[in-house]
Automatic annotation (TrEMBL), chain A:
Name used for this protein in its record: Monoheme cytochrome C
Organism: Zobellia barbeyronii
Keyword terms, alphabetized: Membrane, Transmembrane, Transmembrane helix
InterPro entries named in the record: Cyt_c-like_dom_sf
Domain of life: Bacteria
Membrane-spanning intervals of the chain: 20-38
UniProtKB/TrEMBL annotation, chain B:
Record-linked Pfam families: Mo-co_dimer, Oxidored_molyb
Organism annotation: Zobellia barbeyronii
SUPFAM superfamilies, alphabetized: E set domains (SSF81296), Oxidoreductase molybdopterin-binding domain (SSF56524)
Keyword annotations from UniProtKB, A to Z: Metal-binding, Molybdenum, Oxidoreductase, Signal
Organism ancestry: Bacteria, Pseudomonadati, Bacteroidota, Flavobacteriia, Flavobacteriales
Signal peptide: 1-21
The protein's name in its UniProt record: Sulfite oxidase
Domain of life where this protein originates: Bacteria
Cofactor(s) needed for function: Mo-molybdopterin
InterPro entries assigned: Ig_E-set, MoCF_OxRdtse_dimer, Mopterin_OxRdtase_euk, OxRdtase_Mopterin-bd_dom, OxRdtase_Mopterin-bd_sf
Domain Oxidoreductase molybdopterin-binding: 87-257
Moybdenum cofactor oxidoreductase dimerisation domain: residues covered: 287-404
Length: 162, 406
């Protein structure tokens, strides 16, 4: 009696297993097919007659994206030096590079500025890039001594008529 | 649905490849929004500004004038500096624009349409001087953090609007009111909708002044978009950040308003003087209220060469925050001697005052004409930089121009 029950259980389990396998396989096929369709939205079964107007056409010179001219990264104005791309990638998403270049700070103040941006401005964790970026900034944009009042410079002389 | 999402992401990815980085909060971008990087990159056209204006920052937009551009008695839009803490609102529905007055110290929250504000309350027009708290920051040593304004973040336009006081009287304000704080439609740089780029204000005494207005016209026309269309606060004589643009809500607070850029070190200076480069704790920083006495020589442009024996007429403007300018002087010998300028009375309280002088030079050579204003309390502009402060505010050092006699 006991053995009979056991055999029945075994048999039931086997048929359940079969059903499960078939179900999994069909889901797998479905997923693969779906992924193919997502990646190739123009495949015939979903193809609609309307023109594909949602793709944004933008005039770009891809190759000019990170062009450097005379040691200056054209797109951002950053000086080309070690750490520049890390700085471009992490420091120009929310604000312009112009805000970075205008500011002259030492290591400690850049660190606290980054901390402030992380605490209040949604800047992400910079990880190992933090030191690379700070080194880039203090090396290429060091604070300049101005004293209590600077001499007038870059005077554009012109003749004043009456 | 799936397909649309995919294409949306593909478009963002291609944008990212142009912009050269991932577009943070790209998923939150409005469908019709064209990222700034792809907008008309000519800010002069974008904001109707003169080509001689100087762009300090293009995200967010910050642009300043040069001294000689500010020669008009009432500054036209093309010479008005642009200061943004966030992104300029992308969609302004002027027909459904409302102003809500709320906060702990209103008897009852109340909302007005633009038409109600314009028709219900008496309109006033004032010339009001607005200067960025950080104007002159570029001269501080050690350098201070932020946009490096030189001298051009100031102007005096003619503003038309209604008194904030009249609106608050209509709403009903409780006796415990301490401060007003504005809330506006601009967008945080991170595009996080939960964050406000700036939300400042002033004590009730400033809110209740005749000249503190909710303006809808500048120089007789709709306020330009970059300057706060369709409604803004104008509180002359205080850091221009008190004059909130794109105004949607004013909270009447029973505490000092604690909105973005009211706390920490923003628009604050050390309560007690500190040595240059000092670290100052947040609790030792005090909110800037009235701006200090200051002046600009707007004619001639620096660098004028004139022939010997000719008299040079100089002119410009002077202002003194909440106060009036009492005396205006110039020096051509680096402050050794000073001569008095002609000085006009202000068109109204908090308007800048115009000055002029005829200057004679004793012999050929290089000169600097320095200008110095003194306010009605007898406080004058320093020739050197005033007290250093961590954020580089309130530089009211004398302005000077170079002149050569040939």
């Amino acid at each position: 009696m006991k053995k009979q029950n056991h055999d029945k259980l075994k048999k039931d389990f086997r048929s359940f297993y079969k059903v499960l396998m078939i179900a999994c396989a069909s889901i797998g096929v479905f997923v693969v097919a779906l992924m193919y369709l997502i990646k190739n939205p123009d495949v015939s079964i979903f193809k609609s007659s309307e023109p594909n107007s949602e793709i944004v056409a933008v005039p770009v010179e891809e190759e000019g994206l990170d062009k450097v001219e005379n040691g200056i990264h054209v797109r951002t104005g950053f000086v080309e030096a070690p750490g520049m791309m890390e700085t471009v990638q992490n420091c120009t998403n929310c604000h312009s590079a112009k805000l970075v270049i205008q500011n002259r700070m030492n290591k400690e103040r850049w660190k606290s500025t980054i901390k402030w941006m992380q605490e209040t401005q949604n800047l992400w964790d910079l990880g190992k890039n933090e030191d690379i970026i700070i080194d880039y900034l203090v090396t290429n944009y060091p604070p300049q001594k101005k004293g209590r009042r600077e001499v007038l410079s870059n005077i554009d002389w012109y003749e004043l008529k009456d | 649905m799936q397909r649309r999402k995919f294409i949306g992401k593909a478009a963002l990815a291609s944008l990212a490849s142009i912009v050269g980085a991932d577009i943070v909060y790209g998923s939150k971008m409005a469908e019709n929004y064209i990222p700034l990087a792809l907008q008309d990159p000519d800010p002069f056209k974008l904001f109707n500004k003169d080509k001689e204006m100087v762009v300090l920052n293009d995200k967010p937009w910050n642009m300043e004038a040069q001294a000689h551009l500010l020669d008009d008695k009432i500054t036209p839009n093309k010479y008005i500096f642009v200061r943004n803490n966030g992104l300029i609102p992308e969609e302004i529905d002027v027909n459904n624009w409302t102003l809500t007055i709320d906060g702990e110290s209103v008897k009852e929250k109340k909302t007005y349409t633009l038409d109600e504000l314009k028709s219900k309350f008496k309109q006033h027009t004032y010339q009001l001087t607005l200067e960025c708290g950080g104007n002159g920051r570029s001269e501080f040593d050690p350098p201070a953090k932020g946009n490096q304004w030189t001298i051009g973040a100031v102007y005096c336009a003619s503003w038309t609007g209604i008194r904030l006081r009249d609106v608050l009287e209509d709403v009903g304000i409780k006796d415990d009111a301490v401060y007003f704080g504005y809330h506006a439609a601009d967008i945080h740089l991170s595009r996080d909708p939960a964050k406000e780029p700036i939300s400042r204000g002033a004590p009730m005494a400033k809110a209740l002044q005749d000249e503190t207005i909710l303006a809808f016209k500048m120089n007789g026309e709709d306020i330009p978009l970059a300057h706060g269309y369709p409604l803004r606060v104008v509180a002359g004589g205080w850091p221009a950040s008190v004059s909130g643009k794109w105004l949607q809500r004013i909270s009447i607070r029973n505490i000092v308003h604690d909105g973005t850029k009211m706390t920490g070190t923003a628009y604050r200076v050390p309560c007690k003087p500190v040595a240059p480069g000092s670290k100052v704790a947040d609790e030792d920083m005090c909110i800037i209220e009235s701006m200090p006495v200051k002046s600009l020589i707007t004619y001639p442009k620096s660098g004028a060469t004139i022939s010997k024996g000719k008299t040079l007429t100089i002119r410009g403007h002077a202002w003194a925050g909440e106060l009036q300018v009492a005396k205006m002087e110039y020096s051509i010998d680096f402050g050794a001697t000073w001569k008095t300028c002609m000085l006009d009375k202000p068109a109204n309280r908090l308007a800048w005052q115009h000055f002029s002088a005829d200057v004679d030079f004793p012999q050929e050579g290089y000169y600097e004409v320095w200008a110095k204003a003194t306010d009605s309390n007898g406080v004058a502009q320093p020739m050197l930089l005033p007290g250093w402060n961590p954020k580089g505010y309130l530089n009211n050092a004398c302005h000077r121009i170079a002149v050569k006699i040939a």
